[in-house]
Amino acid sequence: MHFSIQNLLFLLVALAGFGLFVWQARKVRANILVGRDRDMSGNVSERLNKTLLVAFGQQKMFKRITPALLHLVVYVGFLVINIEVIEIMIDGLFGTHRALSFLGPLYNVLMATNEILGALVILAVAAFWWRRNSKPPVRRFTGPELRAWPKLDANVILYIEVILMVALFTMNASDLKLHQLEGVDLPGTFPISSLLTGLLPSSVAALEVLERVGWWAHIVGILCFLNYLPSSKHFHIILAFPNVFYSRLVPQGQFSNVDSITHEVKAMMDPSYVVPAPATNPDGSAVAPTPFGAKDVNDLAWTNLLNAYSCTECGRCTSVCPANLTGKLLSPRKIIMDTRDRVEEKYNSPLIFHPNMYGAEAKHAEQETLDKENHTLLRGYVTPEELWACTTCNACVEACPVNINPLESIIEMRRFLVLEESAAPNSLNVMFSNIENNGAPWAFSPSDRFNWADDLFVTEKA
Amino acid sequence: MAEQLAKRPINVPLMSNLAAAGEEPEILFWVGCAGAFDDRYKRVTRAFVQILEHVGVKYAVLGMEETCTGDPAKRAGNEFLFQMQAVQNITTFEGYGIKKIVTACPHCFNTIKNEYPALGGNYDVIHHSTFLQQLINEGRVGVSGGGEFKGQRITFHDSCYLGRANNIYEAPRDVLATLDADLVEMKRSKANGLCCGAGGAQMWKEPEPGKKDINVERTEEALATLDGNAAALANLYGVESGNAGATPSARNDQRGIIAVSCPFCMTMMSDGVKNKERESTVQVFDIAELIATAEGLNA
Fold first, then answer.
1. CB contact under 8 A, A388 and B208
2. Structural domain count, chain A
3. Structural domain tally of chain B?
4. Count of CB atoms within 10 A of residue A251's CB?
5. Exposed (0-12), middle (13-18) or buried (19+): which is B253, by Cβ within 10 Å?
6. B67 domain residue, yes or no
7. Residue-wise pLDDT tens for chain A (462 aa)?
8. Are both A167 and A22 inside the same structural domain?
9. Which residue windows are transmembrane per the record (chain A) (predicted)?
């Protein structure tokens, strides 16, 4: 162990990197918690089970085998290579060299696995890049919400992953060659780096520099990547886990009940019903009433905002949406991405913040006025035309690999349109009044309701 | 020797009459608005009642005491109207002490089963596909061997509110399996099923501007699957991989049946078949109609 200025520098870099991340994570947490309160406690074992299957086990990814396998490589690579990152942290702080090499044969296995996964990650990333950037790309990587920043972001993630892997191989290969030149055995087995040593210079001084460059590039790269996450769709590598944990356990067809309306309805039906006293602030003043449904991000539940931060913009939801498939404006992914853009615009912004800008193609229904009053999630980002195109079929909910629920947000915004603004399409208003007047959504007379039973026979053996 | 068949008139029992006589039915058959008013779906209601009569289940209906569950209002965001309807229905159920409800509408099924409990209504709610599956398992129906449907090509279209909403995929398929028909699955089936386009209150409004109506997309898939038309299917699914607009498929006039288990799917798929001018070869039936016909109950 030889402690040096490098170790001090590393300590400072690591502290700065993690400190900055904690600062950013707290801002994200605050953003999520502007959402309405919603009790998701209880059922811990059922939730853990689901998290194990869906998040750790990638269960829903395997509906599409090609991307599932490619993603699995990068995911397992991320998990396993992190063990080498632990070693880098120890070496960096204490001036050791390959601190985990005392593991002996296990260390050989570990290093060999790392190297093979590292090579596979580069191949998988190349395939990912091709799927996004070939002409034409895979359809779900297109769409009005996937231009400019989201498109660049997706590629930046891939480039960073390649840079990290190249740094890892630079470090291992030059370390290996240094040891070969010195005639000393390097602990560990390096199946890929041993193929690369021929590409490296044979000067010890140059190799020493290269090894350090690789080492620093890998760890600084990781710290930079960590701090890039809160600005990126890649945040899903962390938030997918809590998002799945806090996803709904009830049947997908069950829409939430609006309790404040229940009190009103029960009081109307039964004059003796006692409506609970309105909530009060700690100082005794009444809590300002919240609107029915959602006009802006803070009217959504915190879980809907967590959804927005967990989205990796993969577009599986949009690619199975019947409305989107048949050319309607609705894209469930856009609703989720808009939610994140809006919460970051209204509250805390991440380091890099480029909210999506949509052209006329995304708003062809009505020319929305972008005055301050209407610059909210509803209308400022999501148009009523998108919301009314939804068939509530749950295909998007079923498709999401991390259990995001775009349908909940759509229904909350529909509720605002109908209950606060009476802004339903006219034909739906007709349906509402039919239910009110005839007890059926069609204009039939209630007295005809039992006519179906007239002249009915059953044929049976005599 | 030909069997002697007899037509027996059915006097559908009303819950109010049973209650007056101090009797309790085994099940309440919830007809739903489509089942009561829609001319096409009334035939499904009648077929299901024929099955109930045939097996001798003690059932009752609410008749004019039934009113919309509130499903379309809730999906459209009108929570107030939904709850008004729900509380009214729950009051009716409680008045009669209803415990078990069977319905042929997945939307009524989902709403009563999943959304009434929050308003104080807790019932054992069963969709007619599950109910028929139980009757089949008990050997009470489905013993005909398929009758006229034996060997016919049938594809089942999943209702979203039965399937993804409530994870019921096998019951309707088990019912169809008793027909000894040539069952073919669409690629987009079960959890990956494609909506007919009517859910979420779309039934009562024009679709938003787009390239195609959803029911046409789904009907094209059902027809191409029944026809075994690989080119048409490749064209349909090609949209996924950016292949849209390939050559239209050759016309195929294979006979077949699209089986459904939902009144809205019935309307949408029937309209789709008309749109594709295939009414002469392809029919849309509810699973209860298929069973009633196979058993000769409506001969």
1. yes
2. 2
3. 2
4. 16
5. exposed
6. yes
7. 566 888 899 999 999 999 999 999 999 999 999 999 999 998 999 999 999 999 999 999 999 999 999 999 999 999 888 888 899 889 999 988 899 999 989 999 999 999 999 999 999 999 999 999 999 999 999 999 998 899 999 999 999 999 999 999 999 999 999 999 998 888 889 999 999 999 999 999 999 999 999 999 999 999 999 999 999 999 999 999 999 999 999 999 999 999 999 998 988 888 888 888 777 888 878 777 789 999 999 999 999 999 999 999 999 999 999 999 999 999 999 999 999 999 999 999 988 888 777 765 555 444 445 556 678 999 999 999 999 999 999 999 999 999 999 999 999 999 999 999 999 999 999 999 999 999 999 999 999 999 999 999 999 876
8. yes
9. 68-94, 106-130, 156-174, 186-207, 213-229
Quote the pTM value.
0.94
Q: Which of residues 368-397 of A touch B (CB under 8 A)?
A: 385, 388-395, 397
Residues of A with Cβ-Cβ distance to B193 under 8 angstroms? 395
Query: Is B77 within 8 Å of A460 when comparing Cβ atoms?
Result: no
| C-beta atoms of A431 and B35 within 8 A | no
- Does B150 share its domain with B288? yes
A449 with B66: Cβ contact below 8 A: yes
Residues linked to residue B127 through DSSP beta bridges, in sequence order? B103
B152 and B278 belong to one structural domain: yes
**Could you tell me which residues come within 8 angstroms of residue B253 by beta carbon, excluding any fewer than 6 positions away?**
B278, B281
What is chain A's length? 462
Q: Give the burial string for A27-45 (b: 16+ CB within 10 Å, else e).
A: bbeebbebbbeeebeeeee
Q: B296, A330: Cβ pair inside 8 Å? A: no
Interface contact B32, partner A, CB < 8 A:
no
- CA pair distance A308, B120, nearest whole angstrom: 33
Q: Give the span between the Cα atoms of A145 and A121, in whole angstroms.
A: 27
The parent domain of residue B176 ranges over: 144-294
In a domain, B272, yes or no: yes
CATH number at residue B54: 3.40.50.1860
Minimum Cα–Cα distance from A253: chain B residue: B165
Question: Are A193 and A330 contained in the same domain?
Answer: no
- Based on the fold, state whether residues A420 and A349 are members of the same structural domain: yes
Q: State the Cα–Cα distance between residues A259 and A290, nearest whole angstrom.
A: 12
Of B3, B14, B191, the CB nearest to A461: B3
Whether the CB of A461 is below 8 Å from some CB of chain B: the reply is yes
Any domain includes A254: no
Q: Is residue B4 part of a domain?
A: no
Question: In a 3-state reduction of DSSP, which class is residue B14?
Answer: strand
By residue range, what is the domain housing residue A381? 291-358+369-438
Which residues of A are less than 8 Å from B53 in CB distance? 458
Residues B59 and B160 in one domain: no
Give the DSSP per-residue string, B227-256: HT-HHHHHHHHHGGGT-TT-PPPPP----E
The verdict on B36 touching A (C-beta cutoff 8 Å) is yes
Interface contact A428-B198, CB threshold 8 A: no
Q: Are residues B129 and B153 located together in one domain of the fold?
A: no
Residues B179, B251 share a domain = yes
